[in-house]
From TrEMBL:
Residues 1-33 form the signal peptide. GO terms for cellular component: plasma membrane. It comes from the Eukaryota. Keywords: Cell membrane, Disulfide bond, Membrane, Signal, Transmembrane, Transmembrane helix. It is found in: Cell membrane. This is Predicted protein. Residues 895-1030 form the GAIN-B domain. The chain crosses the membrane at residues 1041-1066, 1078-1097. InterPro entries: 6-blade_b-propeller_TolB-like, EGF, GAIN_B, TEN_NHL. It holds the Pfam family TEN_NHL. Its main location: membrane.
Length: 1125
């Protein structure tokens, strides 16, 4: 039906033709028929429409809610097949349950499992394949498809349209043909169906022989189209449901308002409806029900129909001869060959096959033929007579079964069974275990008698104590010596003074007390191989223990948990040792200790470590056995031990021959063909082995490296381009790239560009994998091998060694460092870790010729005293880690510090500075994100090793020489310079080395160390430089004023001298002879006085003394110079 109003209109039409239906009932009821019985399937939903049976389930169209649902007749479960509950159209190839429908009327299943639906108001047939819904292609546009059936052999769809047409559609091709005219009305029978008019056809039923029947609702008839295509009317009346067995011709079931009929060979018989009561499990013709819109047959011939008005799907069954219907089982049954009123000796009802329910008073028994008596108001045929433990032999006289007593057999005096929760187990000498007595639910023992038959106590005054009213005994292993002990328990139930007590059997169990060393099976261990192969080369282990499993009692004791808690946690310490057994002697090769947070959830009997325990080791392992011992200290101690065997490695066959032809190494097996040695041929040959492990052979060829840089660059570029780095097994690819770029001359800009892309993509893939594993496991299980990390570091170093691509190298180093942070398990730092004022952070580091990378990952849970130090290469950073964590709210967060040390200035500038140390890039992270430290309340200190001492000495000697020249040459340009050690950082905004926030704290030129102090984090280094920018502007102005004064006074004194000299010459004749004689002496005295005045003025006005030589002599560099000269 398209809408609810359409259904209502159908109801009205039914009542209009009620008189004709009653006439039919009178005629049909005269035909003898089997009785049908009605029952409810259990399906309830508003207004069920068309229904289809398939494999034990019903597919129901819910017109009102725009859904198709599946009802499992066995489990009574309803599941959605299509539709959302909202009216609409959702498009194509969508999930069927997420795509809306509009007034679906029926669903049919094809033999291949495809589900076809009449999406009536959307004017289309929808099909569901693998849970996705789409529109079935049709060469004819459909209009209000309502009825649908599938030919059981051809698979063709027969569709009735409410707009008065029958259509046949082939699903595989989409070809459709009209079987009737497309017009309303009635133009007669016994004509070809293609020429016939139909009026508002509803459901349709197709037979395997090609005949089909449909409800010509508007013409108040059920009509048939025979094998020759002629149409005829076979039943009159406005019916709304039809269905049947497609393999049986001339037979079907149909229904309308409150009745269902069976049509067979031209006759119709009422099989259900017409009654006055709406009940189940009775003769179906005595029942009243609502409008029927769907009929389908089950596998055994049962008839299912949709009771539209009552929102139910009901079932009709008919019983064969010799059986009768049972409302208990909703099926046909017989009892001992009889059925109906003759069953059960006439004194009862057959409710199931060979099961009688005696209904006549005074009779009982299997056949309802045994007379009964009474004991204490309960008849002898009842299972509860004599308390169910005896038989009623006469009035109020019980004969009790063995093990029961009292006049009504109500007192149980029989022994009862008892066992224990554990028959044999072990407990450590530092823990306890609970053993529970197990007994049946029909008894609740009054007392429990526990005993140990052979216990040996550590202290005779401190023994096991048992409660005689508890069904649980606590066996405390700390009270017992190591050994195996036998225990017993039995129970007693007190029946009071009048009757004997019930006593159980004696249950036995054994407890073995062992030293508190636990098996490694309790630990969840990653990274410890099951077998170690002995090698001469060093190999690495990375052992991770995230959790352990223990008995909950041991967990409670270890973490000091209360029984009322659901979760529990405790900061614990651990000590571990990795040992090797060789020649029957076991020696410790590595030891570990630290702290972690241990927590438990009482639902899973496990302890989780946060962070996980992480033990790393790198050695050449040889011997017979590797042993890992672990001791955990919480409220109690737990000790674990595990071992793995060490096997000798197989020795490969030795080969002393190797061939070399042209420019390519020839594999001893002849896999790689030789070339003539030209660059072109070599590059071509490399390309032919792209993505092959043999590509590594080419990277070791050095025959072309001496020819010219262009040739070697071409070869290196081809190798780098051809390599494919597999994140799961990158060793071969990384080795090839590392070797191909080992010659700095071969690493040009093309190689750097290609290499940078490959390395960054490789690291990015690993970064994604690491994050997924951390989300899944809490740590990274499949970390990049240490050797492969080292190879990656050396590849970056090769780029730096080429003198090109500094920024690409820095980018690759940063990405690799971020990956290392993700892969490391954080070390938990506590106040207990601070054994001194300065404590070194646990780190991983990787070293190459041009750079070093060091990473420390940790968690700080609270404030602590002292500072922490991180060492990377020859440099170190000392930091107030607790203050930094507090200032940046980092407590309990995963934090990290990193140091990338470059052997060259990757940010070179044109100035007079000389690099005196390596360049260190220091960073601080929280939750894998960089945190820029600024304006620290307590500075970090960086210690640098002087790496260019010879150049520093030359710079100092140049400075001394230039200063000497300044003292003897008045026009020297070095008059304002000073020689200084400078601590600087790279200012990203200014793109220059700057000293803001950093100062030189001191240096020791004997040990060749420089100490800097900075209030922020970035990239740092040190310089020795002639400082031309350290004189303040105010001082420069004062000095300028001083020189201006000198010039002015010099001019004044010069003019004064000239005037005096001129006057002496002019008036010489007027002077006495004696004055003339002393005039030259007066001139000499005037010059001396003038010089003296100039000197006095200079000394009086000079504000600062900037003598470079005196500055150098007063500088700490004097120590360095004196030790070098």
């Amino acid at each position: 039906m398209t809408t609810d109003s359409h259904h209502h209109s159908l109801l009205i039409r039914q009542y209009i033709f009620l008189s004709s239906i009653l006439l039919l009932l009178f005629v049909f009821s005269q035909v003898s028929s089997q009785d049908y019985y009605i029952s409810n399937t259990g399906f309830l939903a508003p207004q069920p429409d068309g229904i289809t049976y398939n494999a034990g389930s019903l597919y129901v169209a819910l017109n009102a809610t725009n859904r198709i649902v599946k009802f499992d007749l066995t489990s009574q479960q309803v599941s959605y097949i299509a539709g959302t509950g909202q009216e609409g159209f959702g498009g194509e190839n969508e999930i069927a349950t997420e795509s809306p429908l509009r007034a679906p009327s029926i669903a049919k299943l094809a033999s291949d499992g495809t589900i076809y639906i009449t999406d009536c108001s959307n004017d289309r047939i929808r099909k569901i394949v693998a849970g996705n819904v789409s529109t079935l292609v049709s060469s004819i546009s459909l209009s209000r498809p309502f009825g649908l059936d599938i030919h059981p052999i051809s698979g063709d769809l027969y569709i009735s349209e409410l707009t008065s047409r029958i259509v046949k559609l082939t699903p595989s091709s989409g070809i459709a043909e009209a079987l009737t005219l497309n017009g309303n009305g009635y133009n007669g029978d016994q004509i070809l169906a293609i020429s016939a008019n139909v009026n508002n056809p509803l459901h349709i039923h197709v037979k395997s022989n090609g005949e089909y029947y449909f409800l010509d609702y508007g013409n108040n008839a059920i009509r048939k189209v025979d094998l020759n295509g002629y149409i005829s009317t076979i039943v009159l009346g406005a019916f709304t449901a039809i269905g049947g067995d497609p393999l049986i011709s001339n037979e079907f079931y149909y229904g309308g308002v409150g009745q269902i009929f069976k049509y067979s060979n031209g006759s119709s018989v009422l099989i259900a409806g017409g009654g006055v009561l709406d009940v189940d499990d009775v003769d179906a013709k005595t029942v009243m029900f609502g409008q029927v819109f769907g009929i389908t047959l089950g596998v055994s011939g049962e008839v299912y129909f949709s009771d539209y008005g009552n929102g139910r799907i009901r079932k009709l069954v008919t019983c064969s001869a010799g059986t009768s219907y049972s409302g208990y089982t909703h099926s046909c049954v017989s009892c001992f060959g009889a059925s109906g009123a003759g069953a059960c000796s006439g004194n009862g009802v057959c409710i199931n096959n060979d099961v009688c329910a005696c209904t006549v008073s005074g009779f009982s028994g299997t056949y309802c033929n045994v007379s009964v008596t009474t004991c204490f108001n309960i008849t002898s045929d009842q299972p509860t007579t004599c308390s169910g433990h005896g038989s009623c032999v006469s009035l109020n006289n019980c004969s009790c079964l063995s093990g029961y007593d009292a006049i009504d057999c109500s007192v149980n005096i029989s022994p009862f069974a008892m066992s224990t929760s554990i028959s044999s187990t072990s407990v450590s000498d530092s823990s306890a275990i609970g053993i529970q007595a197990i007994y049946s639910s029909d008894v609740n023992p009054t007392y429990f008698i526990w005993a140990c038959t052979n216990c040996i106590y550590k202290d005779s005054n401190n023994q096991l104590q048992f409660s005689n009213i508890s069904n649980t005994a606590i066996i405390d292993g700390s009270l017992l010596s190591v050994g195996t002990y036998s225990f017993t328990v039995y129970g007693i139930y007190d029946n009071g003074p009048s009757y004997p007590a019930r006593v159980s059997n004696v249950a036995n169990f054994q407890i073995t007390v062992i030293k508190s060393v636990f098996s490694s099976s309790s630990l969840e261990i990653y990274g410890l191989p099951s077998v170690v192969v002995a090698t001469n080369a060093s190999s690495s282990l990375n052992i991770i223990i995230p959790r352990l499993s223990l008995d909950q009692t041991l967990i409670n004791q270890f973490l000091s948990c209360s029984n009322s808690s659901t979760t529990c946690g405790l900061l614990i310490s651990y000590n571990a040792a990795l040992s090797i057994t060789k020649n029957s002697i076991t020696s410790v090769i590595s030891s570990y200790n630290g702290y972690t947070m241990a927590s438990t959830n009482f639902m899973n009997n496990t302890i989780t470590f946060t962070p996980s325990l992480n033990f790393k080791d790198s050695n050449a392992y040889s011997g017979t056995e590797m042993i890992l011992n672990l001791e955990l200290t919480g409220a109690t101690n737990l000790t674990f031990s595990t071992s793995v065997p060490i096997y000798s490695s197989a020795t490969p066959p030795q080969s002393t021959s190797a061939n070399s032809t042209g420019g390519v190494l020839v594999d001893v097996l002849g896999i790689v063909s030789p070339s003539s040695g030209t660059t072109t041929e070599l590059v071509s040959l490399i390309g032919s082995y792209a993505s092959s492990s043999l590509l590594t052979v080419f990277s070791y060829d050095t025959s072309l490296s001496a020819a010219n840089s262009t040739s070697s660059s071409d070869v290196a570029l081809e190798i780098v381009k051809s390599v494919v780095i597999d994140p799961k097994n990158p060793t071969t690819a990384l080795t090839a790239i590392q070797q191909a770029t080992s010659n700095p001359e071969a690493v040009d800009s093309r190689v750097i560009t290609e290499l940078t892309n490959k390395i960054n993509n490789f690291v990015a893939t690993l970064n994604t994998n690491y994050k997924e594993e951390r989300a899944l496991y809490g740590f990274v299980k499949s970390k990049l091998a240490t050797a492969d990390t080292t190879r990656t570091t050396e590849i970056i170093s090769n780029v730096l060694a080429s003198g090109r691509g500094n920024q690409q190298s820095k980018g690759m180093a940063d990405n690799l460092t971020n990956l290392l942070i993700l892969g490391e398990i954080a070390t938990l730092l506590t106040g207990q870790d601070q054994s001194s004022d300065v404590n070194e952070l646990t780190k991983v580091s990787f070293t190459s010729s041009q750079l070093d990378i060091a990473v420390a990952v940790f968690t700080l849970d609270k404030e602590m005293n002292g500072t922490n130090q991180m060492i990377g290469g020859d440099n170190s950073v000392t930091m107030p880690l607790s203050q930094i964590t507090k200032q940046y709210n980092g407590f309990s967060k995963e934090s990290a510090t990193t140091m990338i040390t470059y052997d060259q200035n990757i940010y070179s500038q044109s100035n007079v500075s000389v690099l005196t140390s390596t360049v260190t890039d220091f960073k601080y992270y929280q939750n894998q994100q960089v945190v820029t430290l600024e304006n620290l309340s307590q500075n970090i200190e960086l210690k640098f090793k002087i790496t260019n001492s010879t150049i520093v000495m030359e710079k100092i000697m140049e400075y001394i020489n230039s200063t000497t020249q300044f003292n003897s040459t008045s026009n020297s340009t070095q008059s304002n310079s000073t020689l200084v050690m400078a601590c600087k950082y790279w200012d990203e905004s200014a793109l220059a080395w700057s000293s803001r926030g950093c100062y030189l704290k001191g240096y020791n030129l004997t040990s060749q160390e420089i100490l800097c102090s900075c209030s922020h984090t970035t990239m740092f280094t040190t310089f020795v430089e002639q400082n031309t920018s350290t004189i303040p502007a105010s001082v420069k102005e004062t000095v300028a004023a001083f020189y201006y004064g000198q010039i002015a006074l010099g001019i004044f004194y010069f003019l004064t001298s000239i005037v005096i000299l001129c006057l002496l010459i002019i008036f010489k004749n007027e002077q006495p002879i004696s004055s003339r004689l002393i005039t030259p002496y007066l001139g000499m005295i005037a010059l001396i006085v003038e010089s003296l005045l100039v000197y006095i003025t200079q000394r009086a006005m000079k504000p600062l003394n900037y003598s470079p030589v005196s500055a150098l002599r007063n500088s700490p560099l004097k120590t360095f110079i004196s030790t070098q000269i």
